[in-house]
User: Fold these one by one.
Assistant:
Number 1:
Amino acid sequence: MTLRPLAPSLRGLCLFAILAAGQAVAQSAAPETPACKGKIYLTFDTGSQSQAELIEQTLQRHHIKATFFLANEKTIHGDYSLDPAWAPLWKRLVAEGHAFGTHTFDHVYVVRDLPEGKIEVRPQFGAQAGKKLQWTPAQYCEEMKRVDQRFQQLTGHKLDPLWRAPGGRLTHNLLKAGQACGYAHVAWAPAGFSGDELPSDKFPNEMLLKKSLDGLKDGDIFLAHMGIWSRQDPWAPAVLEPLISGLEQKGFCFATLREHPSYHHLFAAGKEH
């Protein structure tokens, strides 16, 4: 019996069926990406900057975006974290999609509230370092915006409308001053305190790692620093990598504060600070 060749239209239908079947098999064989069981929001404050590159490389390796709070702090190189020498780092982090907030330019601690909305403060760095000063809300606003101005000079980009008071210390007047300046304050969850400022002889890295892995839950904001002068056994090399890996194994994903339920409205419809 002589077989007739299929008509062009039938050949097309057969080919389509074969390709569709092959695609279905490939899709069923491909592993599915597990859904996030929750999100953790990693945040890093400036510090001695001894761990800055390590933090950047670890985040790159895990394809994680974090949020950085910047102050002009003295670094292990004898300069300051917002000096031009640090511009390449900040530019890379901007290009990699991280978020950025102000931590006050001179890392200014609040001491107490004063009458008429004023605030007693104590800068850690700068010309007034260690002195107790009486500031108006406008003066504190200017201090927060100094970081934004320098960041734009270094990177060409603005900060996000986020801030964190040094030490996480807040007063009623200070919170109102930040709000009037257009910044939303960001604290951290109880389980999100990394402990990297604590003495390593009393709080070894193994203890801090276990505390974080056991305690962190969906929506928590996590705090660490880009280097701490006083800790003899640095936190970042020993804890950061296993912490991220451990949280990933638990099904957690990571995001910047631009996606956090308490702050994402600040970025709706491309709203800029």
Number 2:
Amino acid sequence: MPSRVVVFDYGSGNLRSAQRAMERTGADVTVTSDPHAALDADGLVVPGVGAFSACMSSLRAAGGDRIIGRRVAGGRPVLGICVGMQVLFDKGVERADPRAEDQVTEGCGEWPGTVDRLRAPIVPHMGWNTVRPPEDTRLFAGIGPGERFYFVHSYAVREWEFSSHNERIREPGVTWAEHGEPFVAAVENGPLCATQFHPEKSGDAGARLLANWVATL
């Protein structure tokens, strides 16, 4: 039986492109905002584009923050994409105007850390870039070190703040990329995985990553 995957529709994200990319893995894919379907699926994909604050507001309105929390607590896989990854952290800091005060928005809090504006000569970071996954990666299994992934973002997690201080708890696997400075490009943390780049727009490398994720369901 193919794995049942829900692409969560909360009003943000490239839903159809994510759906088509997931279907190419052989999964049975549904795009829906139904919370019961999102909870019951073998895997949940949370896409996201645009501003952190707007995505978080829409996600909360659809009950997505609670759905993600319940799935992770129960060991049920979740994959966040782009801003769908960013909202998994503690908070996002945005500046609509350099003269204005920072707008701080609380995220889902699944990982400690702050999503902040990239410090780079050119922002947004738009286009293809290489990444540096950890040695024990499952998401990037079979993907060569020179492969490139497609990014479109102005904000990212620039510092990884998670530390378990417990030898029995496996540290999350963090993948890094660089645009002006290093930033978190992907995270693998048990049932909770996420990518800052768009695997559904990343050609063969992105297709392999999605297939690797579906294989874990």
